[in-house]
Amino acid sequence: DIQMTQSPSSLSASVGDRVTITCRASQGISNSLGWYQQKAGKVPKLLIYAASTLQPGVPSRFSGSGSGTDFTLTISSLQPEDVATYYCQKYNSVPWAFGQGTKVEIK
Amino acid sequence: EVQLLESGGGLVQPGGSLRLSCAASGFTFSTYGMSWVRQAPGKGLEWVSAISPSGVSTFYADSVKGRFTISRDNSENTLYLQMNSLRAEDAAVYFCAGRYCSDGVCDSPPRDWGQGTQVSVSS
């Protein structure tokens, strides 16, 4: 089965900073990669699918890139409302797999 | 507006059974591939099971294969998860999640999620 590995597991950055989270698949998954944001006590929210396509309504400071095995989620200018845990997910075939999550906090 | 509402969670003893339901509204249920995803306390997301829009094809994580059964009733717009032989490690919030499938082809991650239902397994 394909494993998804995220890094870092947590980060602390200042408001306005550029933040990058990486996700690596143990085998190639083309661009079948999604990114979710989960705020404390809330339901996961889909931010990006197909590695780089922004879900409607998601702020443009979020972007995704990558293909094959290496992917990134970038927040161009971190805002207080972006405090959350972010998960990548591969969905090209079952079993689906999520990364272990990256907790983003404000410094 | 798409709505997914889970129910059926609760406290059950190890070895016991529960049946979760997910009532769907606001969209054409029979065009959505549906899944169950769980999250243990303080842990990450874990995919549990998926079912095709027609219900013909079902898929399971190894951790639940042979114990859990996913099904759907497209006439009632409802998704189910029958959970048998429950273990302590099955304790989690269970989310139902759906994704639109065009002509039966599901090519996106689930966008729509319910609020989740809590399953606790303890003697």
What is the fold's blueprint, element by element?
The complex is a heterodimer of chains A (107) and B (123).
Chain A: E1 4-7, E2 10-13, E3 19-25, E4 33-38, E5 45-49, E6 53-54, E7 62-67, E8 70-75, E9 84-90, E10 97-98, E11 102-106
Parallel strand pairs in A: 2-11
Antiparallel strand pairs in A: 1-3, 3-8, 4-5, 4-9, 5-6, 7-8, 9-10, 9-11
Chain B: E1 3-7, E2 10-12, E3 18-25, E4 32-39, E5 45-51, E6 58-60, E7 68-73, E8 78-83, E9 92-100, E10 112-113, E11 117-121
Parallel strand pairs in B: 2-11
Antiparallel strand pairs in B: 1-3, 3-8, 4-5, 4-9, 5-6, 7-8, 9-10, 9-11
What would you say this structure looks like, in words?
The complex is a heterodimer of chains A (107) and B (123). In chain A, 0% of the residues lie in helices and 50% in strands. Chain A has 107 residues and is an all-beta fold. In chain A, a hairpin with a 6-residue loop joins strand 4 (33-38) and strand 5. The radius of gyration of chain A is 13 Å and the shape is globular. Chain A starts with a strand and ends with a strand.
List keywords for this structure.
heterodimer; A: 107 residues; mainly beta; four-stranded antiparallel sheet; 50% strand; B: 123 residues; seven-stranded mixed sheet
Helix content of chain A: under 10%
Question: Can you give the mean pLDDT of chain B?
Answer: 96
Radius of gyration of chain A: 13 Å
Mean pLDDT over the residues of chain A:
97
| Structural class designation of chain B | mainly beta
Structural class of chain A: mainly beta
For the biggest sheet of chain A, the summary is: 7 strands, mixed
Strand content of chain B: over 45%
**N-to-C span of chain A:** 37 Å
- Please provide the count of β strands of chain B: 11
Q: Identify low-pLDDT runs of chain B.
A: none
| Parts with pLDDT < 50 across at least 5 consecutive residues of chain A | none
